[in-house]
Specification:
Layout lengths: L10 E8 L8 E9 L3 E6 L3 E5 L2 E4 L14 E3 H5 L3 E4 L5 E11 L5 E10 L10 E5 L3 E2 L11 H5 L6 H9 L3 H10 L2 H8 L4 H10 L2 H10 L2 H8 L4 H10 L2 H11 L6 H4 L6 E2 L5 H8 L6 H4 L1 E5 L10 E6 H6 L23 H10 L4 E5 L5 E6 H8 L24
Parallel strand pairs: 12-13
Antiparallel strand pairs: 1-2, 1-6, 2-3, 4-5, 7-8, 7-11, 8-9, 9-10, 13-14, 15-16
């Protein structure tokens, strides 16, 4: 969406429609627009001056209040795509793939046509598709029927997990469950890590226990531990039993620490190498696609064993230093041995002060015997510094104090 001067206002994410009785086509009320900071706002169709393929022009005056769907309203992409409806002509059940809207004589926009697919049969992998008028289908009022999410997810395939999480948060619990059922374990794990706590618990509760355990295995151990810590003890214990032993052990070690300590925030799977490893090996490990930028910024040098808890912690090799050294150089010769690691009992203010004082994006956590237990990254610290509802809060809303967490001076 652009303003009259051609400046981009935001990106259209959905269409809001109002279903009407009889065979009257739904009236399009407006558009859901995503503006900076991932805030979703509502733009009435009365503010739209032009609608062309690839772009919409608005008057430039928009209300920045966060969008909230009202009773009776329907999100076209989120709630209509993949819905099964019936052709009035012969009673055939069809699936909605797309919807068309048109400007009526009354100057209102209306949903006038539906692109549908009939159920495939025999040797056909896909059924026939056709475009029908709105009044030639029925069944939109049955909102509680089972509904796929394949077409909706196709529109979101390129979204980052945090953006997909924002979309799911605005949906009904039923639709969130349908999308969760369609996502693969890795994608769902990434999205769960970005959702508010209540949504995480709700989605995990509708999954079969075996699949819930698989998704927890795919999550970062610290995020999985935070989520399990909010569940009833018997449910958490059952899910831990269903997880792979190695993954469950990592999570169990985190659960013994308070959430707002270095031990509770740390990731037990940092990049660890022995002193005789080369700079080339360290850079190769840091390139791993599954590592976050913060976790890849440092390589931790330890004596064997190299699985946490490791042998004696030696020091930290910073990525920038590694990039300046010869590939054949040993990491033990370029690592920082003066950086004092933190203990797992270190409080949140101590962790934030440490990161700020040494200009770091991650820090090592060791036990009393000097064995590396994990690493705390700046993104995990920010998650614990921000209010619980920071994902739902508008950027200009005042912050509230975090219960049980001291202010960081």
């Amino acid at each position: 969406m652009f303003d009259p001067n051609g400046d981009q206002v935001g990106r259209i994410r959905d269409v809001v429609a109002l279903l009407r009785s009889g065979h009257l086509p739904p009236r399009v009320l407006g558009l859901v627009l995503e503006v900076p900071m991932r805030r979703r706002i509502f733009v009435p169709m009365s503010r739209v001056t032009a609608l062309d393929p690839g772009q919409v022009i608005t008057t430039g005056v928009v209300n920045m209040r966060r969008f909230q769907s009202r009773p009776g309203e329907t999100l076209v992409l989120a709630e209509m795509l993949d819905r099964q409806v019936t052709l009035t002509e012969d009673g055939t059940t069809v699936t909605i793939l797309d919807v068309a809207m048109q400007l009526a004589r009354t100057r209102d926009w209306e949903l006038t046509q539906v692109f549908v697919r009939k159920g495939g049969g025999g040797f056909r992998r896909r059924g026939e598709t056709e475009v029908v008028r709105w009044d030639e289908v029925t069944g939109f009022a049955q909102l509680e029927q089972n509904q796929s999410a394949a077409s909706l997810l196709a529109t979101m395939d390129k979204m980052r997990p945090v953006d997909l999480a924002s979309v799911m948060h605005d949906l009904t619990p039923k639709r969130r469950a349908e999308i969760a059922a369609t996502l693969d374990d890795e994608r769902l794990a990434d999205v769960l890590e970005e959702l508010p706590e209540d949504d995480q618990i709700e989605i995990l509760g509708v999954l079969a226990q075996e699949r819930a355990a698989d998704v927890l295995e795919a999550m970062a151990p610290d995020d999985a531990a935070d989520l399990l810590g909010e569940l009833p003890p018997e449910q958490a214990d059952r899910l831990l039993e269903l997880m792979e032993p190695d993954d469950a052990e990592d999570v169990r070690r985190l659960l013994v620490y308070d959430e707002y300590t270095a031990g509770g925030m740390m990731n037990p799977e940092p990049v660890v190498l022995s002193p005789d490893a080369t700079v080339a090996e360290a850079l190769a490990r840091a390139r791993h696609a599954d590592l976050t930028p913060a976790l890849a910024a440092q390589v931790y040098i330890c004596r064997p064993p190299l699985e946490t808890p490791t042998g004696r912690f030696v020091g930290v090799a910073h990525l920038q230093r590694l990039l300046r050294e010869q590939p054949s150089e040993l990491v033990s010769g370029v690592c920082d041995t003066d950086l004092e690691p933190l203990r797992p009992e270190a409080t949140l203010p101590q962790v934030t002060t440490y990161l700020a004082a040494y200009n770091l994006v991650a820090l090592p956590v060791v036990d009393e015997g000097g064995h590396l237990l994990g690493a705390v990254t700046v993104d995990d610290v920010l998650d614990h510094l921000l209010p619980d509802d920071w994902r739902e809060r508008d950027a200009d809303e005042p912050e509230s104090a975090q219960p049980g967490v001291p202010d960081v001076q």
